[in-house]
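hiii, so i know i said id send this last week but things got crazy w the move. better late than never?? heres the sequnce for the chain we talked about at the cafe, plus the structure i predicted for it. fair warning i was half asleep when i ran it
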Amino acid sequence: MGNVSLYLATVFIWGSTWLAIKYQLGVVAPEVSIAYRFALAAALLIAWCLGRGLSLRFSLREHAWMALQGTLLFSLNYLLVYEATAFLTTGLVAVAFSTMVVMNIVNGALFFRLPVQPQVVVGAIIGLLGISLVFWPEVSDFGSSQKAFLGLGLALAGTLLASLGTMVSTQNQRNGLPVVQSNAIGMSYGALLMLVVASLSGQPLDFEVTAAYIGSLLYLSLFGSVLAFGCYLTLLGRIGPSRAAYAMVLFPVVALAISTVAEDFRWSAAAAGGALLVLAGNLLVLAGPALIRARRPAPDSV
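okay and structure toks below
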């Protein structure tokens, strides 16, 4: 798949997972639902690898790196974000999670000495302003209570772990580890960790036998985990963490578009203007380098 196809698939799939996650909350504890999600996703990926004859044999050192990826990207980050929803609306959680684009720019510079491209920074700022406008009613209602700040802290901590997880994935790809096998094994470790957390916290391994819970679990496992993470992490290796992370700013707008149909979300002038800013920032982040190259004068011929 080309970069544009990978990016659009990531945005539209993750934009739809917010509605699916809503059906996961309630009867089953978050850590248990996360364990189910990534255990099923890992099983699907392992079956795919075996069917395609892809090797799953790796060294202990490589397993350690994949386990770290699973810890940061396929387990603890989701647990913190799920817990944040107990204190914040999903809109505010989406705003907090969109800061991942800034975290990836900083972490990419710190860990890999990637150049900070000015158009990416400007585009990220425009996008964050836009997403804040989209969710302005919730942002303006953000209280000064300890619960509100606790929720914000949990959401930002989960976002930071996800950003660090993308750095680990970048390093794994640089070390020659294939994305599909890394995801399969990393998700296995992530699911196992969530089962350990559930056991230590005394959470029972409940399961909700309803069409909504089972359907959303299947969607999150196959589309939200197997396909979306495969697309995003492949894109990560191709265009770098700062530009790939801009999907985190755009997918809340997709989520709202779905919510317009499924949950009767009403668009305000601020929300519409914010969505346009997000799209403008998206264009600058993704097309900026190509536009700059196109505007450079060709070298004099000899």
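btw Residues 3-291 form one domain. thought thatd interest u
miss u guys!!
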